[in-house]
Specification:
The complex is a heterodimer of chains A (83) and B (208). Chain A has 83 residues and is mainly alpha-helical. Chain A contains 2 helices and 1 strand, in the order βαα. With 208 residues, chain B is α+β, with helices and mostly antiparallel strands. Classes of the chains: A mainly alpha (83), B alpha+beta (208).
Chain lengths: 83, 208
């Protein structure tokens, strides 16, 4: 069973909450991690990667992404306070 | 206890109730109406459902159920994770987005989204531009629109979504088969769908 790769990471039809755009330096490259997540799944779906390897790698990347998201949240919070 | 509403997509006004395997274990999908539109929802306990494969698949499964409901429905899909406190804010979204939803429903009428990815085999060398060009040509003839998606892996040569008339799906699949055969030595083709038209609907509604 395939999964649309962008379903979780891209806004298709979305309700846009108006948030002030903040220029936060990309210390943690969330986009790169998301790409790795998608590649991991694709290689698994294509039979190039075993389920065990796919799951191990996914867990690892999810953790990385969580950390990156937290860092970004913290950073943007700090900048907002200063404004 | 289910406090909130999780929205999957929007259809033309119709009362619908379906048994589903929904997001966060929901078992029933039903509709919330505003004038000419209906949003398909299920009850949910939390405002932010977890972004797991299981939930993503459930989101898509429900959209599939709607798409193939009694001979087929046109659905404008919501992105994953659209949760509402109750029916009121959801109706507000339907109201403020009514024109856009109505146009999208008209444009997507009778269409499905199909995905085509070409992945170059490990260690294989190909003329990527030539493959892209030839693929474009062969698939354009059998589709209404195409969307180019990210080449998120170095091994991806083509990653596209196609909007195809349901009646033309067999012709499109024949074109995909021809490409699969043509490059079988060096490239693996992944053909997916039908999906709800995620990549051909772009509606953003301000909630405030």
């Amino acid at each position: 069973m395939f999964l649309l790769d962008d379903l979780l990471v891209r806004p298709f039809t979305s309700v846009l909450t108006v948030i002030q755009a903040l220029a936060v330096e990309e210390i943690y490259d969330r986009e790169a991690i998301r790409n790795d997540l998608k590649e991991n799944r694709l290689l698994f779906e294509m039979g190039d990667r075993s389920r065990a390897e796919y799951e191990r790698r996914q867990e690892e990347l999810r953790t990385q992404l969580d950390v990156a998201e937290q860092v970004h949240e913290t950073l943007s919070g700090k900048i907002q306070v200063k404004q | 206890m289910s406090e909130y509403l999780y929205a999957y997509g929007v259809i033309e006004n119709e009362e619908m109730e379906a048994t589903i395997d929904g997001v966060e274990g929901a078992t029933t999908a039903y509709t919330i109406d505003h004038r000419t539109l209906s949003a398909v929802v299920s009850d949910i306990d939390a405002m932010d459902p977890e972004q797991t494969d299981e939930n993503a698949r459930a989101h898509d499964d429900v959209l599939q159920t709607i798409m193939f409901w009694e001979g087929g429905r046109t659905v404008v899909p919501m992105r994953f994770g659209m949760t509402f406190k109750n029916a009121r804010p959801l109706k507000n979204i339907l109201r403020s987005g009514r024109r856009a939803f109505t146009r999208a429903l008209r444009d997507m009428d009778g269409m499905v989204e199909l995905g085509v990815k070409l992945l170059v085999d490990e260690d294989a060398t190909i003329d990527r531009d030539a493959v892209r060009e030839s693929t474009t040509e062969q698939l354009a003839a059998a589709s209404e629109q195409e969307a180019h998606n990210d080449l998120f892996s170095d091994r991806l040569v083509v990653n596209r979504s196609y909007l195809v008339d349901r009646e033309e799906q067999a012709a499109f699949e024949a074109a995909v088969d021809a490409i699969t055969d043509e490059y079988s030595d060096t490239v693996t083709v992944q053909y997916t769908g039908p999906w709800a038209p995620y990549n051909f609907v772009d509606i953003e509604i301000s909630s405030q």
